[in-house]
Structure formats: C-alpha cells, structure tokens
Task: structure prediction
Amino acid sequence: QVQLVESGGGLVQAGGSLRLSCAASGRTFSSYVMGWFRQAPGKEREFVAAISRTGGRLYYANSVKGRFTISRDNAKNTVYLQMNSLKPEDTAVYYCAARDSMVIITTLDYDYWGQGTQVTVSS
Result:
C-alpha cells in the first residue's frame, strides 16, 4: 500500500512557475513508476508526465513538453513536477500516481493516487 500526498499548488500568473511535490509513504518507493496527471473542470483526467523507477526515463504530454520537468528523489520518497512558462490552459487539479510496475504508461491504469492539488494560472 502506498499513500501519496501532493503539495505546492496555488495561484500564479501566466508565464510564472510552480513546483509540485508528491510525498509517498512506504519503503518501496523506488519500485514504482510515478506519474503526474491533471483534470480541468468539465474535462477528463489526462496524462502530464511520467518517470521510471530510477529516473532514467522521462515521458511528457506534448502540451507540456519543454515547459514541465518531472524528477524524483528515491531517498526522500518524493516525486516533483517543475512547471515553467505556465499558461491559463494549465489550470487544473494535479494528481500524482504510482504504478507497481517497471512499465511506464500514459493511461490512467496506475495503482495509487493522491488527493490532488489545485493549480490556477491567471491570464
């Protein structure tokens, strides 16, 4: 069982930056693929970024590529999402998720989810 707690969301102007963190419980954090997803009002939850267990492989949605960076610190049981050049269309609740597998996927088939953190980008 893994519990995930996101933090770092907030209100920012367009062009600004935020850094999201997701702290995981348990001693096997390094065995999980980690992902970030987001859900805007009235829209389906969508993939943002994912990172392999060791951090050597990174995947991004086209909409955030070049602006967002996912990273992890297995010693701290934490995954991060650095978000730069934010746009109003990035406004959403951001969720981190853990997958008990070595296979990285961009669909919603993750095993554990956090409660989400709100990111609002004003124009």
The chain has a mean pLDDT of 96. Residues 20 and 95 are 10 Å apart (CA to CA). The longest strand covers residues 92-99.
